[in-house]
# Entry
Amino acid sequence: MKSWQVHAFCEPEQMTLDDIPVPAPGPAEVRIRNHAAALNFFDILQIQGKYQIRPPFPFTPGAEVSGIVDAVGPEVKHVFPGDPVTAMTHNGAFAEYSLAAASRTFHSIAGMDFPEAAAMPVVYHTSYFALHRRAGLAHREWLLVHAGASGVGMSAIQIGKAYGAQVIATAGSQAKLDFCLAQGADHALPYTDAGWVERVKEITGGRGVDVVYDPVGGDVFDLSTRCIAGEGRMLVIGFASGRIPSVPANRILLKDISIVGVHWGQYVAQHPEFLSHTHEVLTAMYLGGQIHPVVGKTFRLEEVPAGLRELADRKIVGKAVVVMD
# Structure
């Protein structure tokens, strides 16, 4: 099969598209003939050796796929060859076939095509975990979503609205601001304008927001501490800006705010049952019309490095997806 391989930490363009043997599933694994795989910012970091998880070389990046079950291990009882599924692979998605743990493989939701199904697992599971489990987002609370036109931002806006929150989103261009509004954001502000902090205060009547969803870090995190309400929760999702921020402890104390870590991967490793629960909730939200993954651009398998480069350059709105067939 064709598979993108990382033989040493490098830039996406330095990966190689190799012919490797089709892997055999282990006892509790599923082998999937991939039809689509989604690109994520952390894929780039992992290829560069800047991510917290460093698999042994050579490895195939990519963490979420959709396709048809090709083979299953003897312990797998809930999916069978021929079933359309979506799965979280950890690695191995940018290939014609992938292995996934049975516990991380789910029947595709009725009505979803393969690109949509691939675009859903990681970002929507992350946002549900962040907003529901970690922040306890409540009806009519104010939610500030940074990078609202990204995959995680899109999912946070939609899930926030499903919970009845009032959503303010930030993004870097007018097209991205329009996209945020189309996902349900009540307000969309350009973070390139330093005045966005004052606008957040104005919109919330001087009170500030209750929850900040921040996958950016850096200056965006620092500025967000100036427009968060008392008892507000700052959700630390990631550091796409490249700078890991810090906050003076006295500011946490004086404003009665919480800095809340969101490490979804670690949580589900410790609580594997949370995956199936989340999938059931997200399925109901999708079928109810509350969430809908938007595939902004598709690439062929041969174009994975180009897709990752466009993602790194902030050229993708919504999710970028590799289509295999």
Q: What stands out?
A: Residues 200 and 208 are 7 Å apart (CA to CA). The mean pLDDT is 96. DSSP finds eleven helices and 15 strands in the chain. The first helix runs from residue 41 to 48.
